[in-house]
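Forum > Structural Biology > Help requests

Title: Can anyone predict the 3D structure of Oxidoreductase?

Hi all, first post here. I have the sequence for Oxidoreductase but no way to get a structure on my laptop. I'd be grateful if someone could post the structure tokens.
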Amino acid sequence: MADTNKPSFPKTYTIGGDLTLNRMGYGAMRITGEGIWGPPKDRDEAIRVLKRAVELGINFIDTADSYGPDVSEKLIAEALHPYPKDLLIATKGGFTRSGPGEWHVNAHPDHLRKVLHGSLERLKCDRIDLYQLHRVDPDVPYEKTLEFLQQVQEEGLVKHIGLSEVNVEQIKKAQEYVKVVSVQNKYSVDFRDWEEELDYCRAQDMAFIPWNPINAGNIDELAPLKNVAQRHEATPYQVALSWLLHRAPNILLIPGTSKVKHLEENHKAASIALSDEDMQELEKLRQQGK
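Reply #1:
Sure, ran it for you. Structure tokens for Oxidoreductase below:
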């Protein structure tokens, strides 16, 4: 990197008061087949990615029963079980799948209980340390879903609880039932719709976990990213990830990939020290309404 200064952002974040995580994690959605359906094309490479993630010091892996479905969780267990003591494997429930690229929200307690037990079995765990509601179901009373989360936590099947794609009002409602330790919403340098939620999480000492942290369909068209990347002898993808680490100390990153090479490239983003001028230039992306 052109800039040899060390990044000023904190390297770790503690969720739930007891789980200290390196902020650069790994999202295990892409180790499945096309359309997040079925097994990966290169199973051996998927296993290598998971093993390499741990070798790099990543101790936060995010998955879901719907990735495959079931495929991602099974591969994680095959590659990494018995797990290192400091490794947090977070999973999610709240979708059913009918085919490649097909997602159907289902947060009914009966469905969630079934898939939670399935996740425990596939991951070879007695307890999920971070279980996240994948989506709020418009066809199920939110209170019923929250009562389920409260119950399984009391049963000891789940240690900590997180939410995904929720607004501040929905987070506050959930806090009436459980301690919410994390929120996973779509967010990136060029997608800022959840700014209020990020700020609320920071104030409440909750982790904020951006999904789609690098907008791959559009990132190469963003001039400010390219400019900053050139200054740091980095890629626009790496700068987009670094920006998130600089943006707020409660952000945990889970970039996903099916290739060891890309995993290593993503991980290097944590070594990029963005200057105030860099951050100001990247702020133009928000002003452009991207």
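The mean pLDDT is 94. The chain has one domain: 12-287.
Shout if anything looks off.
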